[in-house]
Structures are given as C-alpha cells and as structure tokens.
Records
---
Amino acid sequence: MSLLEKSELIKKEFETDHLAAIDAAKPEAVETLRLAYLGRKGKLTALMEDLRNASKEDRPAAGKAVNLVRHHIEAAIDELKSMARSWELAAIVNRAPIDITLPVTEDRSVGSIHPVSLMRQQLIKIFRTLGFTVVDGPEIDFDFFNFSALNIPDNHPARDMQDTFYIDGAEKMLLRTQTSNIQIHTMMNEKPPLRVIAPGRVFRCDSDMTHTPMFHQIEGFVVDENITFAHMKGTIDTFLKAIFGSTLKTRLRPSFFPFVEPGAEFDVECGVCKGKGCRTCKDTGWIEIGGCGMIHPNVFEAVGYDSSRYSGFAFGFGIDRIAMNRFALPDLRQLFEGDYEFLGNFPIHSN
Ligand SMILES: [Zn+2]
C-alpha cells in the first residue's frame, strides 16, 4: 500500500472513530482517540515514521497528503477537547441532586455565639427598645477625640488612669482607651436630639484576672433640651433590670470623670447573695458596672453645642464585665483565650 493510500485509509478510519467519540460524549473517549492516532504508538505517528523512510521521489507528494491528514486529525481532536469540557460540566449539573430532607447521620459539631457577642447583641436589643440607635467609630484615633474633647487636656491626671497605647511615629494618635471618642465624632457630625449607643473594642496596657489589654465597652449618651439626671437614672435602672432581672436593686454612687458633671458610678445588687454579701461581690452586696454623669459643658463647647440650650447624659461600661457577671465567669481572660470547650458552653443562637 502506498503512503497516499495509507493516509487516505487512516483519514477514513478517523472519521468513524471521531463520530464514535462524539456519540460517547465522554472525556475519556477523546483521550483514547488521541492516543490511537497521535500517541507514541498511534496510527498517524506510524505514518509519519513511514514518511521518513520513503524514497526521495515519493516524499513530496506523500508528505503533502500525510500533513493534510495530520492537520485534519489534530484540529478535530482539539475541537473534541473543548467539547469534553462542556460534557464534564453537563455531567456535574445533571448529577442527582442532594436530598436535603434526609436525616443527618454523623455527629457534626456546630459553633456557638461568643459570650461577648451574645451580651453585646442582648444589650443592643434592650437599648433599641429604649429608642437608641447604634453607631460605630474608629479604634485608632487622634488624641483630641479620645482625650482633649472629653475635657481631659494634656497633663491631666486622668490620662494616667488609662494606660494608653500610643502609635509610634504618628503625631498624637492612639488606640482608643474608651468608646467615648464615638460620642465626640457623633456630636460633631450631627445635631441634637441624639440618643445613641456605641459598642466597640477599647485598649489599655493592663492585664490580670479582671483586666485584659483589649476589652469591649458600650458608650451611651442622650443629648436634647431639658435632659435631666432623672432621665439618666431611669435609663440605667431600666437596662440593668433588663439584663440582671427586675427584682434586683440598682444604685448610683457619686464619682468623678472629667467629661461629666456631676458624675456617678452605677451598681446592681449581687444576684448570688441578693445583697447579703458573698465572695462574688466581695461582701459588699453590690456589683460595680460602670460610670455615668451629665455631659460636661466643656465637652459641648468642644463639639460646638450651645450648653445653655442643650443638656445630656452619658454612661459607659464593659460588655465583658457584664458577661463575666451574667455567666458567672471567674477570670475575664477566659473570654479571649479561644478555648473550644469553654466557648461550647454558650448557646448557638442568641434569643
Ligand atoms: Zn454577693
């Protein structure tokens, strides 16, 4: 058989095999076809070998014919390869769908909500029912928003009360030590009436059983005409009872914070001993929760509010501290160690 006849024959055989591969519609059939013709022991490879051994006078004509067949086969197989990709996709799409009504047989562990998130969600819910809106603010901020605008000028001793992380190389920038910076941002951007809570992370160089370098606070404040100390007392009493139970007493104690006047701290009756005194409350019968007060006129001045027209109150407390009391945790650091077993004690859903 001459080379011309051989190449004709291979071309014919390929037509048949090509159609069969299309009928099969499987990627494996394409690969089998490729190997059968273009592989090391393939029919076309053998034909090319014959061409190399052909006589000088036969070679031009035969070479032309063999090359035509080769181009034809290579193009056809390339086309099949791209068809194979769509066959694969079709196979995936047509696979039997998953029956989601079947019961789960294996024991899958599911995550739970972190106690701090749980507490935070609960607090936000309570304050929303009291008409507060939630706002956010920067964790890295200028000294002005964290201190100066809050009536804590340079060299004020209150700056030493909060061991501050300053940012290296940045002029007067720090990690906020309190969420009160949000109070300043909000008041500078909006006009009263305001009823806002601002939950967030704060940072102080401090670490022991009841202190961590990062912790969560909620700042709340109300600004309007004729806001009084009684409004503040009512708000604090309402949310403490919502968290700890309506039968527990709450109280305010006089205290000092530079950004309020007058200032107070607020406590809730110890839920363990009901005020009689126990280890949890260090025999005082009370659990300290946070600080509050009437917003200082200097703060209003810093944000451009008329302090003769507006008054307001602010309060702040640690979300982690509340979680610690609410869930009876002995060590605050437990909240941030990521211990799987510890975190598994908390519910999967918040209510
Ligand atoms: Zn107690």
---
Amino acid sequence: MKITEVRIFQKASADKKLRAFATITIDDCFVVRDIKIIEGSKGLFVAMPSRRVKEPCLNCHHRNVIRSRYCNQCGKQLEVVNRPMSEKGDDSSRQDEHRDIAHPITVECREYIQKTVLETFEKEKSNLRKVDQE
Ligand SMILES: [Zn+2]
C-alpha cells in the first residue's frame, strides 16, 4: 500500500487540540477523508475517521450519544449503564464513545499513515487554507 496523495484542511473549530483534517489517497484509487490531526500531550498524532456510538432511549427510541444524561428528544432521564472506568483514563473512554470507520490493522501501516500525514501537515501548516464546515 502506498499513500499517493495527502491533502490537509484546516477548519474553524472550538477544539484547540484538533489542528487539522487530512484526506489521503491510497494507491491512486481509494480515498479516506476526515482523518484528524490532533495535538496530544506527547505531540501531534493522527486519528482515523470515527463516529460517535449511540444508544436508543427506552422511552421514545431516539438515539442519543452514548453517556447522555437525558434523552435529547423526550427529556427522560437515561439509565446510566454501569461501565467500569478504565485505568487508562481519557483515551480509552474516548474509544468507548467513538468507533473507527476505517483504520489500519497493523502497527506498520498505522505508523506509515501517521508519518506521511504529519510530514505533509508540517510542510503545509504555515499556509493552510481555511475551509468552511461541511
Ligand atoms: Zn427519549
């Protein structure tokens, strides 16, 4: 697998840790969008596109973002599912709430994508064009 194109987009965002988005093209024929470039405590890292996991309200079946206290549709208090907090802290609770849509399955591939995306980001970060929210 070869990444043949990386495009970096900066978006106006309240989240200061989210530095930019990337779109990569693999082997000139497959595109993955919404890769996030995030400023972590140990430097920049790349997060693959993900969606928030949702759970249905028992009362009205509206699907709420996981760990919501009250239903967004009917206002009923949602049953708090007893999930043991992981000792790993914030990072693993994020993984409970977000599920990757596309992701590498080997360490080598993950590192290759991260290195390629971050190198392009470093090269382009001084003159990134801002794009509107999609
Ligand atoms: Zn409800």
